[in-house]
């Protein structure tokens, strides 16, 4: 059995702000409407959901709703936080983009993962985002 990352779901108290951040800062775009999942508004996922993509992986930005599990009958115990990782082919250009957007970040260089130049920053809800580039290691 082979698995491939399909989407990342983040819950937010401000979906429009999250949508703007992922579109403007990470330059994600619209998903093909035929690739979007059908939402069951009667039981389960409800609210205005934003769907953005890098062309391969979808992000589902949903309203935070801690009582949703009671309506759906499904109990989930998610981790409080983690991070989303993206790979780039030009980390310097991406850091310049973050600077231009006014987004503060931590430049870890290759201190954590040998051979990856990593930067970390927060989205508007405090989710951690990593962007890295594979680099030569001496």
UniProtKB/TrEMBL annotation:
GO molecular function: dioxygenase activity; lyase activity
Keyword Plastid appears in the UniProt entry: no
Protein keywords: Dioxygenase, Lyase, Oxidoreductase
Organism encoding this protein: Litoreibacter meonggei
Designated name of the protein: Catechol 2,3-dioxygenase-like lactoylglutathione lyase family enzyme
Occurrences of domain VOC (ranges): 4-134
UniProt KW Lyase keyword: yes
Taxonomy, superkingdom: Bacteria
Pfam (any one): Glyoxalase
């Amino acid at each position: 059995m082979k698995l491939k990352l399909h989407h990342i779901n983040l819950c937010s108290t401000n979906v429009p702000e999250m949508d703007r951040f992922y579109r403007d800062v990470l330059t994600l775009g619209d998903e093909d409407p035929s690739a979007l999942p059908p939402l069951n508004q009667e039981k389960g996922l409800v609210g205005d959901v934003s769907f953005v993509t890098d062309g391969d992986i979808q992000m589902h930005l949903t309203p935070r709703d801690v009582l949703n599990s009671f309506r759906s009958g499904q109990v989930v115990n998610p981790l409080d936080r983690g991070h989303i990782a993206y790979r780039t082919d030009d980390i310097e250009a991406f850091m310049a983009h973050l600077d231009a957007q006014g987004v503060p970040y931590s430049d870890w260089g290759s201190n954590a993962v040998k051979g990856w130049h990593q930067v970390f920053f927060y989205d508007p809800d405090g989710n951690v985002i990593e962007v890295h580039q594979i680099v030569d290691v001496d």
